[in-house]
Amino acid sequence: MNNRGYTSIKNANLESLNTFGIKSKARELVRFSSSDAVLSYLDAINIEDFPHLILGGGSNLLFTKDFNGTILSAEMNSTEIIQEDEEYAWVKSDAGVVWHDLVQFALKHNLGGIENLSLIPGKNGAAPMQNIGAYGVELKDVLQDLTAIDLFEAKEHTFTNSECEFGYRDSIFKKRLKNRFFITSITLKLRKNPVLNLDYGAIRQTLERNSVSKPTITDVSKAVCEIRQSKLPDPKEIGNAGSFFKNPIVPKSVLRDIQKEYSGIVFYEISDEEVKIPAGWLIEKAGWKGKRFGNFGVHANQALVLVNYGGAKGSDIFDLSENIIADIRQKFGITLEREVNVL
Questions:
Q1: 88 falls within a domain
Q2: Is residue 169 flagged as an active site residue?
Q3: For the chain, how big is the Rg over CA atoms in Å?
Q4: Which of 5, 14, 53 shows the shortest CA–CA distance to 32?
């Protein structure tokens, strides 16, 4: 770091900065140790001279080419309880903190609300962008507010939960304000007397199998980690970005059409008119699970995960996703949407 709190690397190699392990380069990579460092950097350059991209842990990104621009990365790394009352504690955590480390902090202090989000890869700064979620819980359920710097005006802003315009794996930072605001910290409102959410996925069954009759948030976290590790490959061993597609939300009429052929289809009620169907179920029924095409393919244990076995190009993974989308549309009349950002 220089005395302004940031480092700049020219012609940066991005292979280790994306969990797919795709070989690509950026014109420049800038890492920041504080909010002030971001402001100092913006004071020294013209952000509009080159395209820029905000990078978290690289766990939700597919590079299909080199990036002829500047990649901005948060390295600030502190977490603290900033306020509490009898029921809640407000935890502020920097954008550079690894998300699962924040989960561990909450567990250590017996604060409930994010135990179902255990082992989600990436950093805090990317969590609001994606509105990360798993096993019946989303970030929007616990986020109080966040701080971010407007890259074009070089000013810090606070966004409340409602101002983030959260949707399913979506937020204002993926749409209208994409690549405009650099998130520097998030504040979560967590429960001192946790309310457990056990009814999504195999959490309850996993707890029962482990002979846990009165689960704590730590027990739930361990169960979620066990489930995830049984289904999802470790990016350190096989390149992947976790779930590649969003679970589609469709009208019940579409569900009824599919049930004519697949009476055992898995689905979750969203409203009186809509249901959510697991994308992994659709992909598996279409015959893609475990298919391998040289050095890339669909994971054998989880059809929702596309993998780089080593040396694949980003374009290979993208083309595979295109073929899956087309096949699911043809077989089920449902158009899958990518959860992973493609560059």
A1: yes
A2: yes
A3: 21
A4: 5
> What's the whole-model pTM score?
0.82
Regarding whether 253 and 182 lie in a shared domain, the answer is no
| Domains of the chain: total | 3
Selected catalytic residue, list 169, 185, 221, 228: 169
212 occurs within a structural domain: no
CATH code of the domain containing 28 = 3.30.43.10
CA distance 26 to 343: 12
Q: Does 290 lie in the same domain as 248?
A: yes
In a domain, 258, yes or no: yes
| Tens-place pLDDT, residues 280-317 | 999 999 999 999 999 999 999 899 999 999 999 999 99
- pLDDT attached to residue 1: 61
- DSSP-derived secondary structure for 275-309: EE--HHHHHHHTT-TT-EETTEEE-SS-TT-EEE-
**Within a domain: residue 211?**
no
CA 53 to each of CA 72, 145, 179: distance values in angstroms, whole numbers, following the listed order: 6, 23, 6
Last residue of a domain, one of 58, 74, 90: 74
Tens of pLDDT, residue by residue over 86-119, are 999 999 999 999 999 999 999 999 999 999 999 9
Token pair 């077989």 in the structure block, residue? 331
DSSP one-letter code for 115: G
Residues 182 and 265 in one domain: no
Angle at 117 between CA 277 and CA 313, to 5 degrees: 70
339 is catalytic: yes
List, for residues 11-58, the tens digit of each pLDDT value: 999 998 999 999 999 999 999 999 999 999 999 888 888 889 888 778
Amino acid found at 190:
L
Catalytic choice (24, 243, 321, 338): 243
| Domain finish residue from 24, 47, 74 | 74
What residues make up the domain containing 99? 79-191
- Local confidence band at 3 (pLDDT 50, 70, 90 cut-offs): low
Residue 209 a catalytic site member? no
User: Hey, what amino acid is at 229?
Assistant: Q
DSSP 18-83: STT----EEEEEEEESSHHHHHHHHHHS-GGGS-EEEESSSTTEE-SS-EEEEEEEE----EEEEE
